[in-house]
Specification:
This protein has six helices and nine strands, in the order αβαββαβαββββαβα. It is α+β, with helices and mostly antiparallel strands. It has two domains: 98 residues, SP0830-like domains (Alpha-Beta Plaits, 2-Layer Sandwich), CATH 3.30.70.1280; 96 residues. The strands form two sheets. A five-stranded antiparallel β-sheet has the order 6-7-8-5-9. Strands 2-3-1-4 form a four-stranded antiparallel β-sheet, with helices on both faces. Strand 2 and strand 3 form a beta hairpin. The model has no long low-confidence stretch (mean pLDDT 89).
Length: 200
């Protein structure tokens, strides 16, 4: 890493304020088959940026860390600059605090539902807040998925996997909300919560 660039990032992140906050960075488009996208490489970049207690959750681009910075925007920008510089790829980065993840879990948006071979429970995180004209729950016309609601910049949805149709939820979401989004299963969100919790 270029020393001056590293110094600039550290000024943004480490010395901005005092007191540590727990976050998860949700990286878009991570493929574990790409050697530079593997968890050990991702952790290395986050550690070079000066983050503490860096941990990864499965292999879909979920990095838990601590930082004294309270500016999510600056954290996202620093990570988005570091990834191509260090690992040679770009990835939209969406950050949520431990408090936000716990609040989402507490909402229990999938109450009574189960992630299984018949149905997929998903959470799509939006990078930017925006107003939408959808009335929830929203059943997409001629599609086998339903949007249950929006909770703090996260769209919760259910896909019916028993249908013969190929689910195209991600394409629909990108068309409606843009490409600065990333989706995780509810099970992954719960795993992230479990990894973040011991840091409390």
């Amino acid at each position: 890493m270029n020393f001056s660039l590293q110094t600039q990032w550290k000024r943004l992140i480490i010395y901005e304020t005092s007191g540590m906050t727990k976050y998860v960075a949700l990286l878009r488009g991570i493929a574990p088959t790409n050697p530079n996208m593997r968890n050990d490489k991702l952790r290395g970049v986050f550690e070079k940026l000066g983050f503490a207690n860096v941990r990864t959750v499965i292999s879909s681009g979920n990095v838990v860390f601590e930082s004294p910075s309270k500016s999510v925007r600056k954290l996202e920008e620093a990570i988005e600059k570091a990834l191509p510089a260090e690992l040679g790829f770009n990835s939209t980065t969406i950050i949520r605090s431990q408090k936000q993840i716990l609040k989402l879990i507490d909402k229990n948006p999938f109450q009574g539902m189960e992630h299984s071979q018949k149905s997929s429970l998903n959470v799509t995180f939006l990078k930017k807040k925006r107003k939408i004209d959808i009335k929830f729950p929203y059943k997409v016309d001629n599609r086998d998925y339903t949007l249950l609601g929006m909770y703090g910049g996260a769209i919760c949805s259910v896909i019916d996997l028993t249908s013969a149709k190929t689910p195209d939820l991600m394409l629909w979401l990108e068309k409606y909300f843009g490409k600065e989004i990333t989706t995780r299963t509810w099970k992954t969100v719960e795993r992230i919560r479990n990894v973040m919790r011991p840091l409390a």
